[in-house]
Amino acid sequence: MSDTIVAQATPSGTGGVYIIRISGKKSSLVSKHILRKFLKPRYATYTKFFDFDKSVIDQGIAIWFPSPKSFTGEDILELQGHGNNFISNLLIKKILKIKGIRIAEPGEFSKRAFLNKKLDLIQAESISDLISSTSEISVKNSLRSLNGDFSDYINKIIDKITYLRSIIELELNFLDENKDINIDKNILNKIKNIIKYLKYILFISKNSSILNNGIKIVISGFPNSGKSSLFNLLSRKQSSIVTNIKGTTRDLIHNQIMFNKKLIELTDTAGIRKTKDKIEKIGIKLAKNEINNSNILLFMIDISKNKDYQLKKFFDFIKNISLNINIILIFNKIDLINSYSNINFLKNIKVIFISIKKNIGIKNLYNCLKIELKKFENVYQENIFLVRQRHIEEIKSTLKELYNGKKDWEINKNYEILAYYLQNSQNNLNKITGEVNSEDILNKIFSNFCIGK
């Protein structure tokens, strides 16, 4: 934190403008040596950028943000010049010759903003989410998190827990007085209320994941049923290897595609079967895990080979997957039995008959997918915020503590034990906003940022 850091904030390459950001106590020295003058705070100044021998390297806009009114809370100087990698790199090399200045680590500007309390951890993470947003709605919801909407929600729950802890603390101090039964009932109602709020955030988190990564569609089925061919068809490119050898696909193969104006994370998986091949077994295990994390499952069966036996195996298989997954059962290779394409229902599961090789029934499949995707329309509303997996894990841990506290309270009415569970709950939520943190957690979060952020 004592070092002054420098990095290019814009992507490398040829473009209209580069932006170089310098943050720290030595920023004023950069202004002195490179601009050969000091600037009026927060005013864009058109000026020359000099080398140490007074020759001109470039000319452009310079802006001076003195501490504490800057993004990082430190002195910041921003230089904006002509977008040429050679020029920007040359300028950064000259700046690095000033003692005490070094290249910034990934995410270090945002990390300093967090450590200087210019942002909480949720807001800092939302900067990265905003940069990687893949749709208009995800941009808007990243901005909601950056503006503090999600932080406000978490802080309100923390306030509710703090207030409940204060009630319990008061009761602990007056245990010898007459007990008020209404107080005990009020405590239970407040615990239930907090649990309700946290469960709502978990509901939002599912939608948030879809906004970030796309609706998760997994293609599964038995070997040689046409899974990889369907994956290539939907991807509109040759991504998976297609052969008549069983067990060709052993790893998970992902593609992000746009389908019906929605972002889709499409995954091809290993064929489901019993095998002695160790590598294939690992692939099948990965496939099953991927299916349980999916939104839509496309399960494929080769209709030309023992249809009834495969159906039995299919229904045995889906007994062990999540009830929240939308399933489409696809009978492929109908050209081999001279059957026509159609859509049916089997035990409330939508069934499609197609031939990928002969391009039969593909339109029916597309229409069926469009109907399934309509079930996710509520995800694309503009009143949610983006939630990361790290946040979800902390919320789940908080809920676990609250459920344990509620259960013990209903049985024992023990104030000390309930206070213990509530403190653990509050600590978990504080980790989300960064009130409780460790260097390892911070390094993991900010290392995924780009250098100039």
Q: Strand content of the residues, in percent?
A: 15-25%
Specify the helix fraction band.
40-55%
* Beta-strand segment tally: 13
- Gyration radius (Cα, Å) is 29 Å
Largest sheet: 7 strands, mixed
In one word, what is the shape?
flat
Distance between the termini: 15 Å
The run of helices and strands is EEHEEEHEHHHHHEHEEHEHEEEHHHH
Which sequence of strands runs across the widest sheet? 8-9-7-10-11-13-12
Can you offer a commentary on this structure?
By secondary structure, the chain is an alpha/beta fold. It contains 14 helices and 13 strands. It has helices at 27-35, 85-96, 108-115, 121-131, 136-146, 149-173, 181-213, 227-235, 278-292, 307-318, 362-374, 389-412, 415-433, 439-446, and strands at 4-8, 17-23, 45-50, 56-65, 76-82, 101-103, 215-221, 253-259, 262-268, 296-302, 326-332, 343-346, 349-353. The chain has a seven-stranded mixed β-sheet with strand order 8-9-7-10-11-13-12, with helices on both faces. A hairpin with a 5-residue loop joins β3 and β4.
Quick summary:
The chain is α/β, with parallel strands linked by helices and 453 residues long. The chain has helices at 27-35, 85-96, 108-115, 121-131, 136-146, 149-173, 181-213, 227-235, 278-292, 307-318, 362-374, 389-412, 415-433, 439-446, and strands at residues 4-8, 17-23, 45-50, 56-65, 76-82, 101-103, 215-221, 253-259, 262-268, 296-302, 326-332, 343-346, 349-353. It contains 14 helices and 13 strands.
